[in-house]
Amino acid sequence: MGKAKRICLLLLRLLASGSTVSAAIVMATSREEARFFTLSFEAKYTHTPSFKYFVIANAVASVYGFLVLFLPAESLLWRLVLCFDVIMTMLLTSSIAAALAVAQIGKNGNSYAGWLPICDQVPNYCSQVTGALAMGLLGLLVYLLLLLYSLHSLLDPLLLKKP
Amino acid sequence: MGKAKRICLLLLRLLASGSTVSAAIVMATSREEARFFTLSFEAKYTHTPSFKYFVIANAVASVYGFLVLFLPAESLLWRLVLCFDVIMTMLLTSSIAAALAVAQIGKNGNSYAGWLPICDQVPNYCSQVTGALAMGLLGLLVYLLLLLYSLHSLLDPLLLKKP
């Protein structure tokens, strides 16, 4: 593998790790207190299981991403990395999907189930969660790119190379 | 590849397609009408965007799964199948995660956001959704198995074979 290509791949991994770290931090620091007449309530990520899962999944992916950065280029472990990439991409996909599903209810509510939207009461909390989801999505996209690139260079599925 | 192994893999694919088909059908046919004093309301999968996405994702995965069953063993397209397997597994993962997140709110509610559980009002609807999620989960597990098996036979990541 060329040196330029390797540096490019490492930079992509760095970007992925950076995105997942910031997604976890932004989500974990999101909180806002709202006052509704005499009633005061607090919006926090720990109140929603899906958001807790999002933070955990992104933290796990970040630790993994940083560990992979220090793997020497000649290591045989790179074969295992592809399998772990698949698992991490699944983990990030599920966490983002779950958090998005709950955030969608938080934003629009669900009139059939009688769930009211809460974003009008806690707008800062909502925008911080949106930011965390965007960062998580960026991390996921980079992982997906890395994964499809690995598969492409392994398999040549589009049969571009001459046999 | 041995004939027994090929039949085993095809049976796994058949199982995966069967699971995703039944997950889509069970979710799509789930509906229940509930009466709450004079108020009557209907629970249906189309009322929840995540459940709609679940049905669509499982339907897409089913069509793909059945198409792959008819691919001849010598086809060069099998290389492309691995990439599509990755994408389908992502699709199923995200749909199940989103549907699970909403189903969890439907079952337990979220007291902080003021969202009440609805499963006491529509128990049959809830158990049907649970069944659909279980079938979807089975399909996802089989796809994950197929994917990790493909990667294993391609890469030998655990270095079991002698070089």
UniProtKB/TrEMBL annotation, chains A, B:
Residues 1-23 form the signal peptide. Belongs to the Casparian strip membrane proteins (CASP) family. Homodimer and heterodimers. Keywords: Cell membrane, Membrane, Signal, Transmembrane, Transmembrane helix. It is a multi-pass membrane protein. Its main location: membrane. It comes from Citrullus colocynthis (colocynth). Residues 4-141 form the Casparian strip membrane protein domain. InterPro entries: CASP/CASPL, CASP_dom, CASPL. This is CASP-like protein.
